[in-house]
Amino acid sequence: MNFPFKKTIRLLIAGLVDRSAQPDNRKVAFVIKRTVPFSGNVRALADALQSQGGYQLVVYKDGPLGDAGDFWRTQGARVYEKFSVEALRDVMSAGTVILSHSGRDAMLSRKKPGRRVINLWHGVAIKRIEHLMPGGDQSPGAQNRRYLMRVNSKLYDAMIASSDIDRMANALAFGVDYEKVHVTGLPRFDYLAQHYVFPADLQRDADRLTALLKGRRLVLYAPTFREDGPSALTLLQSDVLQGLKDFLRAHDLVLGIRPHPYDQKALAAICDGEQIIDLRPDLYAEPAIPLRAAAALVVDYSSIWVDYLLLKRPIIALVPDIEHYTLQERGFIYDFSTVFPGPMLSDWDGVMRALQSLVTSDFVVPFSDVHRYWQAENMFLPPAHLRFKSTDACMDIFFGSNPVPPQLTTTHQIADAG
């Protein structure tokens, strides 16, 4: 069966199931994009709801959930790891559907009385996303994606944002009313609080990483993917790797590599399990685990550095292709060079020199970067009263005594599942 035909059949089945499903306001469905783990904002809110009790939780992903699936079954959740009529029925009869990415992942076709759709997204937008993506591509595929964005924006009853600036970016990017975007901070931020106690499955991952480090300091490298260009991991050629390993060994450091879920193919040739370790999402689903353990963060264009700001530790950008990324890839919502809080370097030699200085200073944020950190914190982090309390803010808004209701509409349009 060819893929477009398969998607069409699924959509037809989903539409039929949705017409007969009756929303239950004590049921909450968490829908995860097929290509990413069950982690971050959706996972943190699921933890909170499970702890509070009183709700039937449903977890759906059109693909394997790994250890997370096993864990949530033990918690009494209904877990689905592939498309099925049974999965659709449970998702579409939920009074609240919570998304990590898009309404397409839940195969929702319309607004429905008694059902709320909440998009928690999965980070702070620094790269251009959704409606803020470059608009010059007039190919049929690009036009179809833009059409789907418009359709899906009508499904959302609420979204969250990290800050007032992030609220404006999300309203524009997703094409939703500004009033539907709530400044709560991101629930996943709460995992970074030193007092936060991980659920049992995440604590096992944290303990596993601690054992792997053997008391050495971790430098986390977390590059994002490229849609049109070579992977950032291609910078780690054999000569660079050897010099990097020698440097790490000399300073009792470990480099942990956590690429985007779309970009993991080269890791086997790079990671030796000793000086350079594999921290990909398949092995450590929750990004807060390596972030909490890291003495410094090296990134390119991933917004994971916004999370790391909360820890007030050094951040370095390795961006040799920034001109290409700005002009040929997604590019940025902001001028990247004015919002990034740390040094922006063009090669691994520069990164090692920066790390050498950090070793000498015991990994204190350089004084020359303090003002830039302050600016980034004020732009992208939530107000002080919400820092490390973002999950509570979401719980109050969505499941408190006066929760956000479904915003009913007469628009009934079908969103493609792809």
Number of helices in the DSSP assignment: 16
CATH architecture of the largest domain: 3-Layer(aba) Sandwich
Order of helices and strands: HEHEHEHEEHEHEHEHEHEHEHEHHEHHH
What quaternary form is this? Answer: single chain
Q: Compute the gyration radius: what is it?
A: 21 Å
Shape: globular
Under the CATH scheme, which class of the largest domain? Alpha Beta
- List segments where confidence is low: pLDDT < 50 over at least 5 consecutive residues: 410-418
Main features:
Rossmann fold; 6-stranded parallel β-sheet; globular; 418 residues; disordered C terminus; 13 strands; alpha/beta
Short structural summary:
This protein has 418 residues and is α/β, with parallel strands linked by helices. The chain contains 16 helices and 13 strands. The chain has two domains: 3-186 and 387-399, Rossmann fold (3-Layer(aba) Sandwich), CATH 3.40.50.11820; 202-381, 3-Layer(aba) Sandwich (Rossmann fold), CATH 3.40.50.12580.
What can you see in these coordinates?
The protein is globular. Helix 1 (3-20) crosses helix 4 and helix 2 packs across helix 16 (390-399). The model is unreliable at 410-418 (pLDDT under 50). The longest helix is centred in the N-terminal third of the chain and has 18 residues, at 3-20. It is of the alpha/beta class. It starts with a helix and ends in a 19-residue tail after the last helix. It is built from 16 helices and 13 strands. The strands form two sheets. A seven-stranded parallel sheet has the order 3-2-1-4-5-6-7, with helices on both faces. A six-stranded parallel sheet has the order 10-9-8-11-12-13. The chain has helices at residues 3-20, 40-52, 67-74, 85-92, 140-153, 164-174, 200-213, 238-250, 267-270, 288-293, 304-309, 322-328, 336-339, 348-360, 370-380, 390-399, and strands spanning 24-32, 56-61, 78-80, 94-99, 116-119, 158-161, 181-183, 217-222, 253-257, 276-278, 294-299, 315-318, 344-345. It has two domains: 3-186 and 387-399, 3-Layer(aba) Sandwich (Rossmann fold); 202-381, CDP-glycerol glycerophosphotransferase, C-terminal domain (Rossmann fold), CATH 3.40.50.12580.
